[in-house]
């Protein structure tokens, strides 16, 4: 029987909670069972049971965490962590997961529906609250008796600010930190290696990262050679956010610059993310505009927004995606943007911003900014190929779009 099929009440009788896991200090060694690990090291017996079972990981917060045995009871702070576990274990992506968040259902209902088709029992996994929404309790985590709680880097930052991280550490709940959202250029590899270790799927993590590097490295190498770097505006979730939300040198903003573009937001923003006004865009006249979209028909449109959302995802055909992309030009004044006039407006599936699938965004940004350099790059074809090799379900729908 899989752990996730055990009722939540039954978790109270499960394996004991591991001892203290480390704090947020950079590079701190954080043994989950220091005594067992120390004994193995002192004896010098690398074949002892403790030495064979122990696992040390380095997370995206630059923390080293050591467990006295490989985790079997894993709590995912976000459902979207399954973006990675689907790669690590396409036949059983929620193996070892005893609880998770509920964010994928709202943020990517199309992806969530595909996951449930592939693994129907995933709908029975108990759900927990969120650090960012303030409804996650330490008491609830303790009841689950996790071997490890997986949180994202931005969640860890929020937990530091609201005091929750201190409570988690005082309760000696072991945790590790992943990041595909803030610094994907460095933390995609760190996070996949980490998850491969705690899910005991290191071979699949290595296989994926070899594939990932084969796609991304040539793009960055060519991007570094570019002398003409077009100015690109990255429009984050139009419709769901007022015009015009974007990123600085993080996330998609970082990626588009790596493959030979100039991120317009870097000229205006001081923090990692923020808003540009329509007037700033009109005055700046970016060469290229890239918007993010998703399957958001059930989400509320921001009352200050002058457009609807960009329709992309597993359930969206190309015609619907293109029509919704063109409709973004209804934002007052955008008919005067030369990017629309020159048909250099594109759309990317929003969920690539927070997933190891960001290599598709790298490809799209490279091709859209330097079509002459990347004539053989086809993001949609790559997504199809990747899904066949690594995912529990095939690619379908539309994940990239252009108005031409």
Topology of this protein?
Blueprint: E1 29-31, H1 34-43, H2 49-53, E2 55-58, E3 64-67, E4 74-76, H3 82-88, E5 97-100, H4 103-107, H5 109-118, H6 138-144, E6 148-152, H7 153-162, H8 164-170, E7 175-178, H9 184-198, H10 202-225, E8 231-235, E9 245-247, H11 251-258, E10 262-263, E11 273-275, H12 278-284, E12 288-293, H13 318-327, H14 338-341, E13 345-349, H15 359-369, H16 379-390, E14 400-402
Parallel strand pairs: 1-3, 4-5, 4-6, 6-7, 8-10, 8-12, 12-13
Antiparallel strand pairs: 2-3, 9-11, 13-14
Q: Can you offer a commentary on this structure?
A:
- It is a single chain.
- By secondary structure, the protein is α/β, with parallel strands linked by helices.
- Helices cover 38% and strands 13% of the residues.
- The chain has 16 helices and 14 strands.
- It has a five-stranded mixed sheet, sandwiched between helices. It has a four-stranded parallel sheet with strand order 5-4-6-7. Strands 1-3-2 form a three-stranded mixed sheet.
- Helix 3 (82-88) links the parallel strand 4 (74-76) and strand 5.
- Helix 9 (184-198) packs antiparallel against helix 10, helix 10 (202-225) runs parallel beside helix 15 and helix 15 (359-369) runs antiparallel to helix 16 (379-390).
- It is globular and about 60 Å long.
């Amino acid at each position: 029987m899989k752990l996730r099929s055990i009722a939540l009440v039954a978790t109270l009788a499960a394996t004991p909670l591991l001892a203290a896991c480390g704090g947020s200090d950079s590079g701190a060694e954080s043994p989950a069972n220091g005594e067992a690990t120390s004994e193995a090291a002192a004896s010098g017996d690398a074949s002892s049971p403790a030495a064979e079972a122990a696992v040390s990981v380095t997370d995206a917060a630059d923390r080293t965490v050591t467990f006295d045995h490989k985790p079997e009871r894993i709590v995912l702070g976000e459902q979207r962590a399954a973006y990675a576990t689907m790669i690590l274990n396409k036949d059983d992506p929620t193996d070892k997961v005893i609880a998770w968040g509920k964010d994928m259902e709202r943020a990517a209902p199309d992806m969530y529906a595909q996951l449930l088709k592939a693994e129907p029992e995933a709908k029975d996994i108990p759900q927990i609250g969120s650090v960012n929404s303030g409804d996650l309790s330490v008491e609830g985590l303790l009841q689950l008796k996790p071997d490890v709680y997986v949180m994202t880097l931005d969640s860890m930052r929020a937990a530091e600010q609201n005091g929750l991280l201190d409570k988690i550490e005082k309760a000696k709940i072991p945790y590790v930190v992943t990041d595909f959202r803030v610094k994907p250029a460095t933390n995609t590899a760190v996070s996949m290696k980490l998850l491969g270790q705690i899910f005991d799927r290191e071979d699949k993590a290595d296989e994926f990262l070899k594939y990932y590097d084969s796609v991304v490295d040539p793009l960055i190498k060519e991007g570094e050679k570019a002398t003409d770097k077009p100015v690109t505006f990255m429009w984050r979730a139009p419709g769901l956010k007022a015009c015009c939300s974007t990123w600085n040198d993080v996330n998609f903003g970082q990626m588009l610059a790596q493959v030979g573009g100039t991120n317009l937001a870097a000229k205006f923003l001081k923090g990692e993310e923020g808003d540009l006004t329509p007037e700033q865009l009109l005055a700046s006249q970016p060469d290229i505009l890239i918007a993010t979209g998703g399957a958001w028909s059930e989400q509320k449109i921001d009352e200050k927004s002058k457009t609807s959302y960009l329709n992309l995802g597993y359930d969206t055909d190309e015609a619907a995606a293109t029509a919704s992309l063109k409709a973004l030009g209804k934002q007052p004044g955008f008919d005067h943007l030369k990017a629309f006039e020159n048909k250099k407006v594109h759309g990317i599936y929003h969920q690539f911003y927070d997933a190891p699938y960001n290599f598709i965004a790298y490809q799209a940004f490279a091709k859209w900014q330097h079509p002459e350099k990347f004539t053989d790059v086809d993001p949609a074809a790559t997504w199809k190929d990747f899904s066949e090799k690594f995912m529990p379900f095939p690619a379908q729908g539309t994940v990239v779009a252009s108005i031409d």
